[in-house]
Design a protein that fits this description.
Keywords: Chromosome, Nucleus. One of its GO terms (cellular component) is integrator complex. The protein is an all-alpha fold and 861 residues long. It contains 41 helices and 4 strands.
């Protein structure tokens, strides 16, 4: 504690010391020894994670110049020291990513690890996958590995559902701040996912190194601070400076992280489960060798779960394994499609209690998902599993699920008979406890009260178990109540087909309803649940799942809806629809969007147009997905007409999403709507519509198709205008978004024209006659551009590489693209992609090889 803080404590009223005053961040700048003392306290306040946030927040604050214009953070001694303090805290935590991920948000941890890369002297502007870790200083190599471990872990963690913190009334004004952090997180995740293959390659490469590594500790970071002041002795460059991490420790941690990312990829690539299982197997072996290690931070229970899941998913469980554990037994029944044996196992478990509830619920969800996907013969199995789980919950005194109450809305006699059978067998013990008997009696009462058809009520009330568990007086009262209620029910009434006329289900706990709200993809059911929960509590239910996201462009319009129920319904229907599009479940997306459109049409023309735009994007993506899968059917004239209408739309005060415009333009390009893009776009549209300018604009695409159609003479003037606008484009964020857009294109002529343009730009800014990069149509472009000094040469080079690499994924045998790629790698003296051992564009650094001889020796005879 500082002297000022001590004075404040001693001056407390009444002469008694008050609670300790929290140490301020600036006190650590004034006293160099304070940080270590603070971190070694039993309960430091602020915590280590809070301090990292404070230090980085202060170091990254923008400054103002004399004209009160916002400037980037100043690179001065104060800010460098603050960043170094944040790194020292992470070093004190032994770079434990588990701890750092729990305490820091993705943007803060991204900033921290980028600072680690900087102080560790990782070469800037060079992709990590292009670095040779074996030649780097130990602390430099370790910084690269820590960053790429965090990158793939973040991708995995972002796919897990998480419960969002519900802000109180005093926090509602923080919505914009929360939204900004959310957008930053999304942007970082986009980049991490785009670079995931590179991160995996870096970590796989680390497994081939069998030497000890060293990571920065507090001492080496102190030396780095001294180095910045000019008083260091170069010790941080030594091979043994820092905290020693053995090869086994590093491999154990890296294999665990790689197993996690491969396991996540298994849902789209079945072979990835095999890779994940191998990494988890070797992780287990290394853990046994290491025993207890201070430098290996992983969840052994999660590792065991991953291992069992991989063995189940890859079919490597042996006969003994299949029955050795309850998990193995259930999984074996699922894999062999032995549905009745599975139901029987659930009934028996109602008395043995060997299966945890979460496993039983997970199995039911899996079968429901299969049934929704159209797998036949599973409806009865789903009902039977649901009944088994409901009886198990009842015996434990828990509330009944929403799904079970749904079953009782229109049950058959066969279903009621099955419920009674399960109840009877679930109490088949010599001496069931009094609690179990009472819970089962309550369940039987609930069953009677939930049935509307009197004959079915009599089936239950005349059953042997019912008469054993309930006293005669209770039975009479209950049956009489059912008689009276039956007389008032109009059994012939049917619900109206409108989306607005949906009956509410039986009342259950709000937690169960929220869970059902998260899981349901049926619009009517979503509205029904919202009606019920709004009757129980007055709060914002669109907040209950952090994975429900609507575009920032629409958030203010939706949250401006006055009626709370309507607001929740619009938000949730849109968020669920967008999620379905992401996972390519276009059928459910259409249902959800149609329901939302019907709802908003009644009260908001703006939201109606928003939904029409999103439904257009849905149809465009659905058609492009079919095309990517090999379908060559051209889009309908109606869809093309709707796309044109969107590009020409001019509605005042209408929120628009850039991605819709981008995908519409990419759609027109991919399906060769040349005449529209080159001739028919109204001239005012170029300036009025923000989605048809420069990198995604009319001039741009007119130019592309002019080249494709060889209208060369008419394009030179437009080309000059485009080239002169590239200096602001080549910022990292814009470049990333541009590459993301390019990857929506698959038309070879468009890609050829893009490669030609960027190769020309590359040759202009690089001005290297010896290592010239070639491409088609280079002669049509202007030979100079304005403000050339403002163009980032490295950014242009990276864009050209990524553009050519993407084009070759579509057609690996395109001769022109291969020559361009060969020139790029020759000029930068880098090896071609390692994934192509017979790469046709292979060259040597000493000589250019004629195209006729660019063949791998293993392919020649």
């Amino acid at each position: 504690m500082s002297a000022e803080a001590a004075e404040r404590v001693s001056a407390a009223p009444g002469g008694r010391p008050s609670s300790p005053v929290q140490t301020s961040w600036f006190e650590f700048l004034l006293d160099g020894s304070l940080l270590e003392t603070h971190l070694h306290k039993a309960s430091p306040d602020p915590t280590a994670a809070q301090l990292i946030v404070q230090f980085l927040e202060q170091a990254s604050k923008p400054s103002l110049n004399e004209q009160n214009q916002v400037q980037p953070p100043v690179d001065n001694r104060r800010n460098r020291t603050l960043k170094l303090l944040a790194l020292k805290i992470a070093a004190h935590m032994r770079w434990d990513l588990d701890l750092l991920e729990k305490g820091l948000s993705i943007p803060v941890l991204n900033m921290l690890l980028n600072e680690l890369l900087c102080v560790s002297k990782v070469p800037p502007g060079v992709k990590h996958v292009d670095l040779d870790l074996s030649t780097l200083p130990p602390t430099t190599a370790m910084a690269v590995l820590i960053y790429n471990r965090w990158a793939i872990r973040t991708i995995v963690l972002s796919s897990f559902p998480e419960k969002q913190t519900k802000p109180g009334p005093h926090q509602m004004n923080m919505l914009n701040i929360i939204q900004q952090e959310k957008e930053m997180t999304e942007n970082i995740l986009i980049v991490l996912k785009e670079q995931s293959a590179d991160s995996i390659s870096v970590l796989e490469g680390a497994l081939r190194l069998h030497k000890d590594f060293y990571v920065h500790n507090v001492r080496t970071l102190d030396l780095l601070g001294a180095d910045a002041a000019g008083t260091a002795n170069g010790e941080t460059e030594a091979s043994t400076a820092g905290l020693r991490i053995s090869a086994h420790e590093l491999h154990c941690q890296v294999r665990y992280d790689l197993g996690g990312i491969y396991f996540q990829q298994g849902c789209t690539d079945q072979g990835a489960y095999g890779k994940a299982m191998e990494h988890f197997r070797l992780t287990r072996d290394l853990l046994q060798k290491l025993g207890s290690s201070l430098h290996v931070h992983l969840d052994e229970k999660r590792l065991a779960g991953y291992w069992n899941a991989c063995r189940a998913l890859t079919g490597t469980l042996g006969p003994a394994d299949a029955t050795a554990t309850p998990y193995g037994q259930i999984n074996s029944l699922i894999r062999t499609h032995n549905h009745q044996a599975l139901v029987e196992a659930f009934i028996q478990d109602n008395t043995s209690h060997s299966l945890p509830n979460h496993l039983r619920q997970s199995v039911l969800r899996e079968y429901l998902h299969k049934a929704q996907q159209g797998e036949r013969g599973l409806d009865d199995v789903c009902q039977q599993l649901c009944v088994c789980n409901a009886v198990r919950d009842a015996l434990q005194g828990e509330g009944l699920s929403v799904r079970f109450h749904q079953l009782l809305l229109k049950p058959s006699k066969r279903l009621v008979d099955f419920i009674l059978e399960v109840c009877t067998r679930s109490l088949e013990k010599d001496r069931p406890s009094e609690t179990s008997r009472q819970n089962m009696a309550n369940f039987m009462k609930t069953l009677c009260e939930s049935l509307e058809e009197l004959p079915l009520v009599f089936v239950v009330s005349s059953h042997k178990l019912f008469m054993e568990l309930l006293r005669e007086e209770e039975r009479k009262v209950l049956v009489e109540q059912m008689r009276k209620r039956s007389a008032t029910i109009n059994l012939s009434a049917k619900p109206l087909p409108s989306f607005y006329d949906i009956p509410a289900s039986a009342s259950v706990s709000i937690g169960q309803l929220e869970q059902q709200l998260i899981l349901s993809l049926e619009p009517r059911r979503v509205r029904q649940i919202l009606i019920e929960v709004h009757g129980m509590a007055q709060r914002h239910f669109w907040r209950i799942n952090s994975k429900w996201e609507v575009p920032p462009d629409y958030i203010n319009v939706i949250l401006g809806i006055k009626d709370p129920l309507t607001k929740d319904l619009v938000y949730i229907l849109m968020a669920k629809g967008l999620h379905c599009i992401t996972i390519k479940d276009f059928g459910h997306a259409r249902q959800l969007f149609s329901a939302c459109l019907e709802l908003v049409t009644e009260f908001s023309p703006r939201l109606r147009q928003v939904m029409l735009n999103e439904m257009l994007l849905l149809e465009v993506r659905a058609h492009e997905t079919l095309a990517a899968d090999g379908c060559r059917d051209r889009p309908s004239s109606d869809l093309v007409s709707r796309v044109r209408g969107y590009l020409e739309m001019r509605i005042h005060d209408l929120p628009l999403r850039q991605v819709v415009g981008e995908e519409c333009v990419a759609f027109m390009l991919n399906w060769r709507e040349n005449d529209y893009l080159t001739l028919q776009v109204p001239p005012p549209l170029v300036q009025s519509n923000p989605y048809i300018k420069v990198t995604t604009g009319t001039k741009w695409y007119r130019l592309l198709y002019s080249i494709s159609k060889e209208y060369i003479i008419h394009t030179i003037a437009v080309a000059t205008a485009i080239l002169n606008q590239f200096s602001p484009f080549f910022q990292p964020l814009f470049r990333s978004k541009f590459i993301t857009f390019v990857k929506k294109l698959r038309e070879p002529l468009v890609l050829t024209a893009l490669i030609s343009l960027f190769v020309k730009l590359h040759s202009i800014v690089r001005d290297d006659i010896v290592n010239e990069v070639t491409a088609e149509h280079l002669t049509i472009w202007p030979s100079s551009i304005l403000n050339m000094q403002a163009v980032d040469v490295e950014a242009v080079a990276v864009t050209v590489k990524e553009l050519v690499s993407y084009a070759l994924t579509l057609n690996p045998n395109n001769q022109s693209w291969l020559i361009t790629q060969a020139d790029i790698y020759f000029g930068t003296e880098l090896l071609p992609p390692a994934a192509a051992p017979c790469w046709p564009g292979r060259v040597t650094a000493s000589a250019r090889v004629p195209i006729d001889f660019w063949m791998c020796p293993c392919c020649t005879v």
